[in-house]
Amino acid sequence: MTIEAPDLSLAALAPLLFVFGAACIGVLVEAFGPRDSRHPVQVAVALVGTLGGLVTTVLLAGTREVTAGGALAVDGAGLFLQATIAGLGALSLLLFAERNLDPARSAFVVSAAVPAGSVRDRELLTVQRVQTEVYPLATFAIGGMMLFVTANDLLVMFVALEVLSLPLYLISGLARRRRLLSQEAAVKYFLLGSFASAFFLYGVALVYGATGTVRLAGVREAVAGAEGGTLVVLGLALLVVGLLFKASVAPFHTWTPDVYQGAPTPVTAFMAACTKVAAFGAILRLLYVAFGTEEWTWRPLVYGVAIVSMVIGAVLGLTQTDLKRMLAYSSVAHAGFLLTGVLGLPATGDAAGSGLPAVMFYLLAYGLTTLGAFAVLTLVRSGEGEATHLSQWAGLAQRSPLTAAVMSLFLLALAGIPLTSGFTGKFAVFRAAIEDGAWPLALVALLASAVAAFFYLRVIVLMYFSEPAVDGPTVGVPGLPTTIVLAVTAAATLLLGIVPGAVLGLADRAAIFVG
Amino acid sequence: MSDSLLLVAMVVVPAVGAAVVAGLPRERTPLARQVALGVSLVVLVLAVLATVAFDPDGDRFQLTSSVPWIPGFGVDFALGVDGIALVMLLLVGVLVPVVVLASWDDTPPARRSMRTFFAWLLLLEACMVGVFAATDVFLFYVFFEAMLVPMYFIVGSFGGPRRQYAAVKFFLYSLLGGLVMLAAVIGLYVVSASAGEGTFAFESLRQLDIDPDVQRLLFLGFFVAFAIKAPLVPLHTWLPDAGAEAPIGGAVLLVGVLDKVGTFGFLRYCLPLFPDASRDFAPLVLVLAVAGVLYAALLAMGQNDMKRLVSYTSIAHFGFIALGVFAFTTEAATGAVLYMVNHGIATGLLFLVVGMLIARGGSRLVGDYGGVASRAPKLAGVFLVAGLASLALPGTNSFVSEFLVLIGSFPTRPVFTVLATVGIILAALYVLLLYQRTMHGPPRGVLFPADPATADPATADPATADPATADTSAAGEPAPAGGHGATAASATATGTGTATGTATATGTATLTEAPPARTTTLLHDLTRRETVVVAPLVALILVLGFYPQPLVRLIEPAVAATMSDVGADPAGTTPATTEGTDR
C-alpha cells in the first residue's frame, strides 16, 4: 500500500514553520545548552521564531490557498490573525524575559517540581537562577494558535487546540510567588480545558458521523445539501462550546478569573491577548466556512451567549477587588462584544460583510490593550510580589504619574472612550451588528459597556483621586523588555484610536476566508 | 491664514497648548498658567476672526474644511460653523481665558499641581471647540465623549470634598447617554447606507428621508444623550453634584459651555435630522422643559449650598432653552440660542463671584455668610449684577433672550409658556434671597469671627476692615456696624454656654497679638486680578442687554434654516433669511 504525499506549499507554511522550528530549537537548547547562557539564547530563539513568523505572514499578504492536503487554509483572515498572534506573542515573550522587576530576577519558579513551601522551595526562592523552559513552551503555544486560525479541517483544528492548550496549562502553574495559587490555577485550567477539548472532539465525531467528512468545505457542502439534521446541530453545538470555552465566553468562563489571577502575570497577559485571538479566529472560521449556510442554527445561540457574556462580565466585574480578576471579567465582557461582531457576518459564502473585518480589528486592538494593562500590573509591586489588590493602587498617580497615566490610557481604551483603539473596535463591531439588524443586541452591548466603564473608572478614581495608602506598593523600574512592550502597546492603543484608517483598511482587505 | 483653517487652528492650538503645559516641569506652574492664558487668548482671537469672516447671509455652513479621517467607516474630519455654532465658539473663546485668570492663584489640593489643571482646561477647550464645529456626526460624537475625560479629571482631581463621587456620577451619566447616542449614530449610518452611500456627513444626512418609525428610535437615541447633558429634569441629578464639587473654573465651563452641548445638539441634530420625530415628541419635551423650570427653581430656593443653588438655577434655565427650541418658531429658537450664550455669561459670572466668596470664607453654605456688602461693596455689586442677569432683569442680557423665548413660544404653545413664566417669579425669589442673605443684613458668619467682637465690639469689629484703617484708627469705625457684629456674636456665644469666658480670653489675647493680620485675610474686596476676571463678563451682560443685535444677526439665519428643516416655522416670521439660507 502506498501513501501519497500531500501537496505542501512550503511558502504558505513558512510562518508556522518558523514558529514551530524555533520551539523545537528551544527544546534542544534546553537539553544541550549550558545553563549560564540559556536565558539569552532562549529569548533570542523565541523572538526570532515569532518575529520571523510575523514577517513571513506580512510577506504572504494576499495569498489565498488551501494547502497540506486541504488541511490548512492560508487566506487573508488567517494571515491577519496569524500576524496578530505572532506579534502579540512576541510582546508577551518580552514580558516573560523581564529580569529587573522581581528581586529574584524572574516571574517564574526555578524548579516547578519542588513542592511549594518545602525547605528546598524556600532556598530556591531567592536564587537568581531563571526558568527557561517557558520559552519553548510558549513558542509551541503560539505555533498552536497560529495553526488553529488557519486549520481547514476539524481534526487539525483539534490538534491545534491541544498544541496551544497543553503548554498553557503548564506555564500557568509556574509562578514564582504564591505558588499554590498558581498550581491551583493550572489544575483548574487543565481539568476544565480537558472537558472543553472532549466536547470539541465529540462534536467533531458527531459532525463526521453526519456528514462523512471533517474538511470544513466538505461539511459546508453536506450541510447545504440538508444532510444530517439533528446530528449536525448537536455536533455544531458541541464544537462551539469547546471554542467558547477557550475564548472565555460566559457561561463557559468560570475558569477565567481563577486562572488569570493565579497564573504568573506575563502568562496571564499572553493568554488574555493571544488565546482570545486564536479562539475567535477558529470560531469565525468554523461558523463562517463550515456552517455559513447553517446560520439559522448558530445565530440564536451566539446571540444569547453574547448577551450572557456581556452582562456577566460587566456585572461581576463590578464586584471584584483584585485587578487581575477584574481584567478577567473584563475579558469575558469583551468576548461578548466580539460575539456581537461575529453576528454581523453575512450569510453568504464569499462576500465579506463588515462583521469579519470588525472582529479582526477588535481582536488586534483588544489584544494590544489588554497586554499593556497586564504589563502595567507587573510593575506595581509590594513586598511579596505584585500588588494586585485594588486598595493598594490608591493614590498611585502621585507615586508614579507615568505608570498611572499609561494604565489610565489602557483602561479608557477598554472602556471604549473615543480616540482610543477600544472605541474604534467597539464602533466597528456594533456597526456590523446593527447593519445586520441586530440592534437590540447592540443596545444591550452599549448598556453593558456603560456598566463595565464603571469598574475601569474605579481604578482611575483610585489612582488619581484617592490619597495614597501608607504602606503602598512600590513601582518597579522596568527593564528594556517591559519598556518596549509598554511603549508599543500604548502607542498602538492611541494610534488605532486616532488614525485607525490604515489598519481598518487592511482588515477590510484581508477579511476573506477560503475553504 | 485661510478661512477654512481657522476652525482647525481653534482645535489644534489648545490641544497643543495642553501638551506643552502638561510637559512643563512641576515647579514651572507660573509659566504654565501664562501659557494657558496666552493660548486661550489666541483661541479667542481666532474665534473673533472667524466671526469676522462669517457671512450671516451666506451658506449655512461656512469656514468649512474636510479631510478623510477613517475611510473604512466613511468618516471625515469635517469642521464648519453655522451661526449657532459660531456664537457658541465665541462663548468658549471668552469663558476660557476668564476661567484661567480666575483660577490663577488657586491652591490645588495636596500633592496636585495647577499645571495639570491648566493642561486639562486647554484640552477641554479643544474638545469644546470640536464638538461645536464638527459637521460630521461621528466626529461630533468623538468630541462629545472625549470631552468627558478632561472634565472628569478636573472635577475628580481639583474638586471639593465629595469630588470622587461627583466625578464618577458625571462621567457615568454622560457616558451612558453617549453610548445610547452611539447606537443612534450607527443607526443613522446604516440608514444612509441603505439609501445609497453610507456617510456621517451632516449635510448628506439632513437630506435623507427617514422612515418616521426609524426616526423616532434614532431621535430617542440622540435625545437621551442631550437630555442628560443639558440636563432636563428627570436626568439632571448629576449636575448639582458635579457643579457643587467642581472647582469654580470647572463649574463655570461645566454649566456655561458643556451643558450647552445638549441644547445645541437638540437644535443641530434632533430637529433637522428627525423632523417628524421631533414634532411627535415635542409635547413630551416641553413637559420636561417646563417641569424643569419650575421644579429646579423650587429646589434652588431650598438649597443652602451656594454652588448647588447655582447649579439648580442652571437646570431651570435649561428648561427655558429647551422650551424655546421645541416651540418650533424662529423667534423662540433664536431666543433659545441667545439664551445659551447669555446663560453662559450670567451663570458663569455668578459661579465666579460665588467662588470668590467661597475662597474668602471657606464655606459653601449660604447660612455662613451675611452682611458681606458692608465690607466688600464691589464684590457685592458684581454679585448683584450676576444675580440680576440670572433672573433676567430688563437691561441685562438674559432678559432679551428670555423675552424672545416667551413671546416666540406663546403663539404655538401658550399653556407651556404661561407655566414657564411662573419660573421667572421663582427666579427672582431664589436670586434675591441668596443675595439678601449673604450680602445684606448684619455682618456675620465665617467672614466675621465672633470672638473678638464679644470682647470689645468697638476695637474688634474694625479688625475685619482693611489693615490700614484697623492700624491707624481702631476705634474710629462707625458704631452701627460694630453693634450688629456684637449682636450676632453674642447670639452665637450664648448658644455654647461656656463660650463667653473663653471668648473674652481669646479676645484680649488676640488684641495684644496684632489681630488685624489674622482676621483681615478673611474678607477683602475684589483684588485687581478678580476685577479683571469679572469685568469682561459684567460688560457683556450690560452690552448684550442693550444691544444684542450682532448676535441675533448671526443666530437668526441658522435658526430659520433649522426651523425650515423641521417644517414647523409659521409663515412670515423671517421670510427673507429663510429663503436665503435654505437648502
Can you put this structure into words, describing what you see?
- Chain A: Belongs to the complex I subunit 2 family.
- The complex is a heterodimer of chains A (515) and B (583).
- Chain A is globular, with a radius of gyration of 22 Å.
- Chain A is an all-alpha fold and 515 residues long.
- In chain A, strands 4-3-5 form a 3-stranded antiparallel beta sheet. In chain A, strands 1-2 form a two-stranded antiparallel ribbon.
- In chain A, a hairpin with a 2-residue loop joins strand 3 and strand 4.
- Chain A has helices spanning 10-32, 35-59, 76-96, 119-125, 134-150, 154-172, 179-211, 216-224, 230-246, 255-262, 265-290, 295-318, 323-342, 355-379, 396-399, 401-415, 421-435, 439-465, 480-498, 501-510, and strands at 65-67, 72-74, 380-382, 385-386, 474-475.
- Chain B is mainly α and 583 residues long.
- Chain B has 2 domains: 3-441 and 526-581, no CATH class; 448-519, no CATH class.
- In chain B, 73% of the residues lie in helices and 3% in strands.
- Chain B is built from 27 helices and 4 strands.
- In chain B, helix 3 packs across helix 26 (549-566), helix 4 packs antiparallel against helix 6 (148-158) and helix 5 (137-146) packs antiparallel against helix 7.
- Chain B starts with a helix and ends with a helix.
- Chain A binds chain B through residues 357, 398, 412, 415, 417-419, 423-424, 427-428, 430-431, 434-435, 439, 442-443, 446-447, 449-450, 453-454, 457-458, 461, 464-466, 499-501, 504-505, 507-508, and chain B through 68-73, 111, 141-143, 145-146, 148-149, 153, 156-157, 163-164, 167-168, 171-172, 175-176, 179-180, 182-183, 186-187, 189-190, 193.
